[in-house]
UniProtKB/TrEMBL annotation:
<feature type="transmembrane region" description="Helical">
    <location>
        <begin position="244"/>
        <end position="266"/>
    </location>
</feature>
<feature type="transmembrane region" description="Helical">
    <location>
        <begin position="47"/>
        <end position="67"/>
    </location>
</feature>
<feature type="transmembrane region" description="Helical">
    <location>
        <begin position="335"/>
        <end position="361"/>
    </location>
</feature>
<dbReference type="Pfam" id="PF07690">
    <property type="entry name" value="MFS_1"/>
</dbReference>
<protein>
    <submittedName>
        <fullName>Permease, major facilitator superfamily</fullName>
    </submittedName>
</protein>
<feature type="transmembrane region" description="Helical">
    <location>
        <begin position="310"/>
        <end position="329"/>
    </location>
</feature>
<dbReference type="InterPro" id="IPR020846">
    <property type="entry name" value="MFS_dom"/>
</dbReference>
<feature type="transmembrane region" description="Helical">
    <location>
        <begin position="79"/>
        <end position="99"/>
    </location>
</feature>
<feature type="domain" description="Major facilitator superfamily (MFS) profile">
    <location>
        <begin position="227"/>
        <end position="446"/>
    </location>
</feature>
<dbReference type="GO" id="GO:0022857">
    <property type="term" value="F:transmembrane transporter activity"/>
</dbReference>
<dbReference type="InterPro" id="IPR036259">
    <property type="entry name" value="MFS_trans_sf"/>
</dbReference>
<feature type="transmembrane region" description="Helical">
    <location>
        <begin position="105"/>
        <end position="124"/>
    </location>
</feature>
<feature type="transmembrane region" description="Helical">
    <location>
        <begin position="382"/>
        <end position="399"/>
    </location>
</feature>
<feature type="transmembrane region" description="Helical">
    <location>
        <begin position="145"/>
        <end position="166"/>
    </location>
</feature>
<dbReference type="InterPro" id="IPR011701">
    <property type="entry name" value="MFS"/>
</dbReference>
<feature type="domain" description="Major facilitator superfamily (MFS) profile">
    <location>
        <begin position="1"/>
        <end position="213"/>
    </location>
</feature>
<feature type="transmembrane region" description="Helical">
    <location>
        <begin position="278"/>
        <end position="303"/>
    </location>
</feature>
Length: 446
C-alpha cells in the first residue's frame, strides 16, 4: 500500500536537518578562524578540516548499510539518530572547551575529528528517512522543504555569529572580529546553542516520529556486493561522480572563504587579515544561505514538475557562472553579488539532487536499501571535503597564496558534472504519487 504525503513527518525531518546544518555551519564559520590562531599554512588548516571528509567517506557507508538490516522496536534509523545527535552536541562543547583551555593544535584537531565522527554516525540514517516515508513522485516537494530548513539552519548560525561578533567588537574596540569574540564571553554562545539544537532535534525525532514498517529483505547483499553494484549501475555511478564534482567546487569556497576574502580585499591571507574579514565572511555566508533558500523551494517544485535533468543542470549552471566571474572580482560589492547569485543556483541544485537516489531505488525496486545507498550518497559529499581541503590548500600554496584561483577551478568542476547528469538513462522515469494528506499531523510513537 502506497503511503500518503505526511507534512508532519516532513517537518520533523526538516527540524533534524535544521539542527544538523547549525552544527555544520558552526564548523564552517568558526573552525578556520580558530585554526588560524595555531597556524597560517593553508595546507595544514585544509588538511585538518578535511578530516570531516575522511570520516564521512567511510562511516555513513558502513552504518547506512547496517541500518537497513537493523530490526528493533525503535526502528532502523532512529537509534543511530539519537546516539549521533547526543554525541555531536557533546562534541560541539568539546571544541569550545579545548580552544578555551589553550590545548595544543593536535588536541584541538582531535576535538574537531570527534565532532565529525559524531555527526556522521547518523548522516545516512537521516537522509534515508525521507525516501522511507515519502512516495517517489512527491520527493521533490519534500526535498524542497527539507533543503529550505537545512539552509535556514546555516543562515540562523551565521546571523547569530555575525551579531555576536558585532557586539564583541563594540565591547572591546578590537577591529578584528574573531579576536574581539575571543576576548569576550560571547565565544561560548554559538557552541552552546549548537549543542542544544543537535541534542534536542535528535531526541525529538527519536521519541516523536515513527518510522514506517521495515520492508523484508529476502536476499541481503554483503557490504562488498552493494559497493560493487553501485559501480556496475551506470546511472548511480554517473550521479555519484557528478555530485562529488559539484560538492568539491562548493567546498573550495566553503573551506577557504576567509582566505579568499582576505586575499581579494587585502592582498594576502595572513592571520591578521583573515581575522579582519571574519565579520564580513559570516555576513556573506548568511547572504549565501538566504539566496539558497530562494532557490530551494522552487528547485523542489521544478524537480517534480519540469524534470530531473533540467532542474539539476539549471542549478549547476547558475552556481558555476559567478565562479567564472570570481577570477575578475576585486571589491566587496562584487564578491557579495557573486555569492548571492551562486546561492540561488546551489539551492536549486541541492533540492533537485537530494531525491535522485530514492527515485532510482524506486525504479530498480531496491527501496529496502535506502540506508546503504544514501550512505554512499553522503560519502560522495564527504570525499570532496577531503579532496578540497588537501588539494585546495596545496593549489593555494603552489599559486603563491593566491586564493582567487579556487573560483575558476570550482566552476570547471561543476560544468564537468553536468554532462553526466544529462546522460543518465533513468533519471526522469518516476511513478506518480498519491495525493497528500490534509493535516500536519506527526505519527506519534506508541
Amino acid at each position: 500500500m502506497e503511503r500518503r504525503f505526511n507534512w508532519g513527518i516532513v517537518l520533523g525531518l526538516a527540524l533534524l536537518g535544521f539542527s544538523r546544518s547549525v552544527g555544520w555551519a558552526m564548523n564552517k564559520g568558526l573552525s578556520f578562524p580558530l585554526l588560524s590562531s595555531y597556524t597560517q599554512s593553508a595546507l595544514v588548516k585544509g588538511t585538518i578540516l578535511a578530516l570531516e571528509g575522511l570520516i564521512g567517506l567511510f562511516v555513513p557507508v558502513v552504518l547506512g548499510y547496517y541500518s537497513d538490516t537493523l530490526r528493533s522496536k525503535y526502528g532502523r534509523r532512529r537509534p543511530f539518530i539519537m546516539i549521533g545527535g547526543i554525541l555531536a552536541g557533546v562534541a560541539a562543547l568539546m571544541i569550545y572547551t579545548s580552544y578555551a583551555l589553550g590545548v595544543p593544535l593536535a588536541g584541538f584537531a582531535l576535538s574537531l575529528a570527534f565532532f565529525y565522527l559524531s555527526m556522521h554516525l547518523y548522516t545516512a540514517q537521516y537522509r534515508a528517512l525521507m525516501p522511507d516515508t515519502v512516495e517517489s513522485g512527491q520527493r521533490g516537494k519534500a526535498s524542497g522543504v527539507i533543503t529550505f530548513f537545512e539552509w535556514a539552519g546555516n543562515l540562523f548560525f551565521f546571523g547569530l555569529a555575525g551579531y555576536l561578533v558585532a557586539k564583541a567588537v563594540s565591547m572591546t574596540g578590537e577591529k578584528e572580529g574573531i579576536k574581539a569574540l575571543i576576548q569576550t564571553p560571547y565565544l561560548k554562545i554559538p557552541f552552546i546553542i549548537t549543542a542544544v539544537f543537535l541534542i534536542g532535534a535528535a531526541l525529538f525525532v527519536y521519541f516523536i516520529v515513527r518510522e514506517p514498517e521495515a520492508p523484508e529483505i529476502e536476499e541481503n547483499e554483503t557490504l562488498g556486493e552493494y559497493l560493487i553494484s553501485i559501480v556496475e549501475n551506470r546511472d548511480f555511478l554517473k550521479f555519484y561522480t557528478a555530485q562529488t564534482l559539484w560538492w568539491m567546487s562548493f567546498e573550495f569556497i566553503g573551506i577557504f572563504l576567509y582566505g579568499i576574502l582576505a586575499y581579494i580585499l587585502y592582498g594576502s591571507a595572513s592571520e591578521e587579515n583573515v581575522k579582519a574579514v571574519t565579520s564580513l565572511g559570516l555576513l556573506l555566508m548568511a547572504l549565501f544561505n538566504v539566496t539558497v533558500l530562494v532557490g530551494a523551494l522552487p528547485g523542489g517544485i521544478i524537480y517534480d514538475k519540469l524534470g530531473r535533468r533540467l532542474s539539476i543542470i539549471l542549478g549547476g549552471v547558475i552556481f558555476a557562472i559567478p565562479q567564472i566571474w570570481g577570477w575578475f572580482i576585486h571589491t566587496k560589492t562584487e564578491i557579495t553579488v557573486a555569492l548571492g547569485i551562486a546561492g540561488v543556483g546551489w539551492g536549486i541544485l541541492m533540492a533537485a539532487s537530494y531525491p535522485v537516489v530514492g527515485d532510482l531505488l524506486t525504479k530498480f525496486e531496491r527501496e529496502a536499501f535506502t540506508g546503504r545507498y544514501y550512505g554512499f550518497f553522503e560519502a560522495t559529499r564527504s570525499l570532496p571535503v577531503l579532496l578540497a581541503g588537501i588539494i585546495g590548500g596545496a593549489i593555494v600554496d603552489l599559486a603563491g597564496e593566491n586564493y582567487r584561483v579556487l573560483f575558476p577551478i570550482g566552476a570547471v568542476l561543476v560544468l564537468l558534472a553536468m554532462p553526466m547528469i544529462w546522460f543518465m538513462k533513468n533519471l526522469d522515469e518516476t511513478p506518480k504519487a498519491e495525493p497528500e494528506s490534509d493535516g500536519l499531523e506527526i505519527e506519534l510513537e506508541v
